[in-house]
Write a structure and sequence with these properties.
Blueprint (H helix, E strand, L loop, with lengths): L19 E6 L29 E8 L8 E16 L4 E10 L13 E11 L1 E16 L4 E8 L2 H4 L6 E4 L1 E2 L8 E4 L4 E6 L9 E2 L1 E9 L20 H13 L14 H13 L3
Antiparallel strand pairs: 1-13, 2-7, 2-10, 3-6, 3-8, 3-13, 4-5, 4-7, 9-12, 10-11
Length: about 280
């Protein structure tokens, strides 16, 4: 039997979607540290030696503003600026915390944040540098969530009361698309506080999140639909999460599967919540 031949293209199996590298930042110029732009909770700079108290320098990223719909963020490293780092050992351990904010529409409540990763990086005595802090194991977060990144150092006023020991995050006044925050319990800021509200509107923290856009696997509610924020427990944050999904018009919010969003979806979600999780 003769086979008829024709000119055709080569048919290959569909390739798996590749991770798309991405850098997320709210800084207009994220890699330029400006001397004198940063503040911290610290002892009087006119009195030596000087120490900084416990400080957390924070940014909050609404990932929907950066990612393509249907993707999650796989975080591989954090970049942050250092205006000044001084330590008796000539280096210090800085902690990087990654959180998901389950109630992003409200002021940030530090104890309400959900920790997804915490790791340390060595910072040597330096000025006006950008530090890259890689994660040993990348962390993936839902692309519809709000990622909160904190760079924090301990209370050196207690640890080194007679020596110079300080850390000032790097910043500049050249613009940002969202606020910079500080957490400084020793100076009355137990929760992250917008630096502009503390009369430091030009302290724009230099910070970037590096990683990859990957196909979403973290945003599904899984076997328990009512657990909107996927925390593993049902609480008021799930209602807040559902309200945000509804306001954004996502498919998740279409609880009754009608194809349109209305009061019946809220009733449906309330029933799912009342039924609880397996």
């Amino acid at each position: 039997m003769n086979k008829r031949a024709s000119i055709v293209g080569l048919l290959l199996p569909a390739a798996a979607a590749l991770a798309q590298p991405i850098t997320i930042t709210q800084s207009t110029i994220p890699d330029l540290v400006n001397v004198g732009s940063s503040v911290a909770c610290a002892t009087d700079p006119a009195v030596t030696p000087q120490q900084t108290d416990e400080n957390g320098f924070i940014r909050s990223f609404d990932l929907t503003q950066f990612l393509t719909a249907g993707n999650d963020l796989q975080i591989t490293s954090i970049d942050f600026g250092v205006e000044a780092a001084v330590h008796p050992d000539t280096f210090q351990t800085v902690t990087v915390n990654l959180f998901v904010d389950p109630a992003p529409a409200s002021p940030i409540v530090y104890t309400g944040l959900q920790l997804v990763s915490s790791y340390t990086v060595l910072v040597f005595d330096s000025q006006e540098v950008i530090v890259n802090a890689p994660l040993t194991t990348p962390v993936q977060v839902c692309g519809k969530s709000t990622l909160v990144v904190e760079v924090t150092t301990p209370d050196y006023t207690t640890l080194f009361p007679t020596e110079n020991a300080l850390f000032f995050i790097g910043s500049n006044p050249f613009g940002q698309t969202a606020p910079s925050f500080i957490r400084a319990p020793g100076c009355g800021a137990a929760n992250p506080t917008d630096l502009a509200s503390l009369s430091f509107p030009n302290m724009h923290i230099c910070m970037s999140v590096n990683g990859n856009q990957v196909a979403s696997t973290m945003c599904t509610a899984g076997p328990c639909y009512a657990d909107c924020d996927t925390s593993g427990t049902l609480n008021i944050f799930d209602y807040i999460c559902y309200g945000n999904e509804y306001a954004s018009g996502t498919s998740y919010a279409d609880c009754d599967g009608s194809g349109s969003l209305n009061i019946f979806d809220y009733i449906c979600y309330g029933n799912e919540y009342a039924a609880g999780c397996p």
